[in-house]
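Render this sequence as a predicted structure.
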Amino acid sequence: MDSKWMRTGCGCCQVTRRGFLAGCAACGAGAVGLTPVSASAAKDECGEKARVRLVFSHTPSTGPIWPNIGFDFEPRKKELAEKLKKVCPNVEFLPATVMNAAQAAKLLAEDKDKKIDAYMVCFEGLWVSATPTILAAGKPTILVDELYQGSGEWLIQNAAARRRHLEVAGISSSRIEDVADAARCFEILKKPGGTVDAFLAAVNASRKKNTKPAGELSCPADPVKAADVGECLKQLKNSTILAIGGHWPVGPKAIREVFGINVVATDFKELQAAYEKADLAEARKWADRWIGEAEKIIEPKRDEIERSGAMYLAMKDVMQRHNARSITINCLGGFYGGHMKAYPCLGFRQFNDDGLVGGCECDLLSATTMTIVGRLLGRPGMISDPIIDTSKNQIIYAHCVGPTKVFGPQGASNAFHIRSHSEDRKGAAIRAILPLGYLVSTLEFHPLRKEVIFHQGKTVENVDDDRACRTKLAAAVMGDIEKLMNEWDQWGWHRVTVYGDVREPVKELAKALGLKVVAEA
């Protein structure tokens, strides 16, 4: 990786001593509460303000999105713009909102005559696809994640920018003060001897300074009884994943060739036919059971939970027909497109608790990983959309499904709430209240890369935030959270988390399969 991404502070800036001191002063406010300097001092220090285009990136909230349909982005945008103006007197911020790549291109065209020095892109929502267009302008840029709103796109774009050695630095923190601290570094661009390298080094130093040190990471004993590798490989060859609704980046052939797992692809019609034939009396029994087991039921009405019971029976029927122990469904496309009458989330939770696999979004990589985890470790994997919070040194695993028997089918149960699906506020989904204080391992197996990516953490909080997915498990990162930002452009957003220290059995299986284990943190 380019050396400018490895710098640890202003001491690495290639500027004069005067420029070095000025650059450090520009970013020193975070250590003392971001106290703004006076206007006269700003004028004496800087002379000319840095002009920064403050870009808020999100799609309209009229449809299902992260964080949720109908979300009001404006209060946070206003709060951030006002905060930056207050604590950065030597920076002129020019706010704008873009909702797609075309709007980003139009904004860049308008900026040609405005002498823009730099950009600050705030990821307020997901999958806007505007960032590559903005980065193509070649200006110094800070990418800012709005946690639980733009995290997936931020992780991927920030990692891609690092890999391409672009003049870009990233901030992913729940503290608005950390964002403002990084923004102060734009002042360096207008100081004598202030270079882009000095600016980037200062932002990266600011982020590292504001990253919470690792705390107590010891965990209680949680022995994992792994299967013999030879037996696991034999079981994988007898495993079938049923994939419904398509859209996967890695094909069934590669999965079969590397892991021996068979993938059967089908469309929504077979599932819908099974749903229409489901025994409604049996569906009501499953609804009764889930309602009785849940600690809370918040949004869904009983009829919605009964429809989830019918969907569970439909999935079981189709799985039995194809001799499958694992199922993954393009649930969002199916539900939004009217191909499914209920979300599969409650059924997925039941499968995972029973030693089978229910995987979200027809993500074959994650469904394959969950199948391997189940065969090797006898524990359920939890698929998630992770979020990084440097202010707490945490990674948060978020999804609208979560297991309630994390130690295996014979283990203790953890509590759960039945909630609506987050993005569209419809249907029935799961908020799992997961055990805290335990070591968790997070991984993905990739047949084309011939790699297993792997990191670990200590579970510290079940985050209760109405934005984004219902289940949110925060873990203190074991290792280097800086390194944890590097691989998302290569692997995508999803990861699979399992309780226990499973490093050695995963390494042993990877060796037998000819795969390399990549330490993500």
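Summary. Confidence is low (pLDDT under 50) at residues 1-46. The chain has 18 helices and 19 strands.
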